[in-house]
Amino acid sequence: MWKSDLHHGVRAAAAVCWLPMLIRLLVLFLMLAVPHVRAAESLATAPVEYRDVDEVFTVDGSVEAVRQATVAAQISGRVVEVKFDAGDRVNKGEVIVRIDEREVGDAAASAQAQLAQAQATLTNAKATYERTRQLFDQKFVSQAALDNAFADYRAAQAQLEAAAANASRAATVKGFATVTAPYSGVVAARHVELGETVTPGKPLMTGFDPRDLRVVTDIPQFRVAALRRDLPAHVEFTQLKQKVGASSVTLLPTADGRTHTTRVRVGLPHYIEGTYPGMYARVHFSVGRTRRLVVPATAIVRRTEVTGAYAVAGDGSVQFRQVRLGTAADDLVEVLAGLKAGERVALDPAKAVMVLRGVQPQ
Predict the structure, then answer these.
(1) 3-class SS at 4?
(2) Rounded Cα gap, residues 208 and 64, in angstroms
(3) pTM for this structure?
(4) Could you read off the pLDDT of 200-251 as tens digits, one per residue?
(5) Alpha-carbon dihedral angle through residues 274, 279, 285, 290, given to the nearest 10 degrees
(6) Contact assessment for residue 47 and residue 293, using Cβ atoms and an 8 Å cutoff
(7) Helices 102-137/143-175 angle, 10° precision
(8) Cα–Cα distance list, 292 to 56, 231, 284 (Å)
(9) The 68-72 sheet, strands edge to edge
């Protein structure tokens, strides 16, 4: 009996000793939990919900210049001056290449001499014809003599016209020695070196107008019918992290028999700084409306190969969820797996990480 009372007394004393410690632990837990909930309440969140969004068909494309040309030599000769190189800006009418014009200059001078000779011959033939006609009127020469004088006069006229045409052509050819830019733009490539001998048709320089660009892409033929409904499209430049609406969509009336694709030209609404021919771009064609489970794109965080979002529960707890995403449209991203409708996600992943670590966000 005495031993049983002693045992109960020891247990009661131990319970009394542990009670203050349990109270202190409970208070400490409440002190830590309340700031955590308050910190979570300060997070801006958005619901995971179903919305009617554009059904987007995305394809890869590339930028090309609407105005791009390769200037070629039109005469033979040695290149004596190259004034621009690849990457240089050129204004319309500026000289880009000069070719030795001595040979064509001699030809032009010879043509001018022939023109002067033809003019002198015509003057002499005209005077002869006038004198012969006066003598014919006075019955001193025959009709045959008059006809011969008139024929010589007409032949001299024809020779003068031919010499004038030859002189004009020679002057035009001489002008080909100075090659100018057909429009303002940027030199894309230089195909000739100083001192090189060129022949007609030899490429000299390639240039393009950077202010007039478009995006071209190839789409499967089964998508052609959907694109004919004049639905909107957007062009995304991943390198520039920029997305713009297309000003026009032109479907070419031909198809590639090997790939069974159709070429589409997508116009840009304005010049976008940093774009150039050959640059990679993605084209998003809107082919209708559909209902999808979406979240704001700002809520998505990417860690190397892991994509996820921070889900905020009703009690303020924050949890990182790995998600699988679908298409993106209107600043929203489709969620295929990892989140459910009705849940809420943090719009600022950086602040969500601070809450998850127990740090009060600023």
Answers:
(1) helix
(2) 9
(3) 0.60
(4) 999 999 999 988 899 999 988 888 877 766 678 889 998 888 888 888 888 8
(5) -80
(6) no
(7) 160
(8) 12, 19, 17
(9) 68-72, 203-208, 185-190, 89-90
